[in-house]
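#structure-requests
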Amino acid sequence: MNEESRADEKKLETGNRKLEKALPWIVGASAIFVVALLLSAAVYLLPPSHALVGVIVRILPYPIASVDGRFITYEDFLDERAAVDVYLAANSQERSDMEELNASILDALIQREAVELLAKRYAVSLDRDRVQTLYDDTVTEAGSPEDFVREIMASFGWDEETFRARVVAPLVLSAQVAESIQ
């Protein structure tokens, strides 16, 4: 064997050793990529009501929409959807067209996010006193605080703080933003 072929053989052995060291990393990265691809396909191709979608999005924050670079997560969407489902069941109403219902829920989440962005842009801070006043007025309409808490639990599956955060605070912030823009 001549010197040139020995040098080539030595380069080949060195290359094989490097490949043997890198192979587990390549296989691992490929496996992670395939798993991520399969999970993404499940989230975006299966219907939102599929149990697997719920499990995946509770673990990984998949986006469902974006408003000016801020993501609305699929989990947020499913939480709103669950509240609507509880409301419909509590009021013996059948689900309407699922695509239309999902679009309405997503639109509401997008509007909420847009209001938050506008509030930030116009330096509007949520007025906690107005939140309390609106909440108190709503409770008064229901009769008593206990009746109201029972009603929101039965209607949406929410406690009092969740109702404030997901309904009352966004309504107040929206009104404040509208007032500051005018």
